[in-house]
Amino acid sequence: MSEQSLPADALPEYAERVLDVAEQIPPGRVMTYGDVAEWLEEGGPRQVGRVMALYGGAVPWWRVVRADGALLPGHELRALENYRAEGTPLKAASRASEGHVPRIDMKQARWDGGDRTEGHTRQLPASHRHEGDG
Prior knowledge:
two-stranded parallel ribbon; two-stranded antiparallel ribbon; 5 helices; mainly alpha
């Protein structure tokens, strides 16, 4: 079945799976676009980013982030408000950063999918659990 023949309110299966992962990320933690793709064993960071851009408003979108911890351009203030409310670890902005907006502290905030509920038991490989890239 092609996407064009889906009912207007139906999401593509891949999008549903991406959004499901985003919903499971605990408050105060994040996964990179690449982490989500690796978790699903399908697609890549760009595909996850596309899903989040099109459909992410219905889930905690601020918990799926760039690998460098930079806040989503155009949504920095809304994301920052959510990060502060949830206690997400942040790094102070450098003087060189545009607008002096902090970044996510990826070493502390990155979630590997452990301690999951709802029947999910898979974790990211140990080599990806606390790296700053994704």
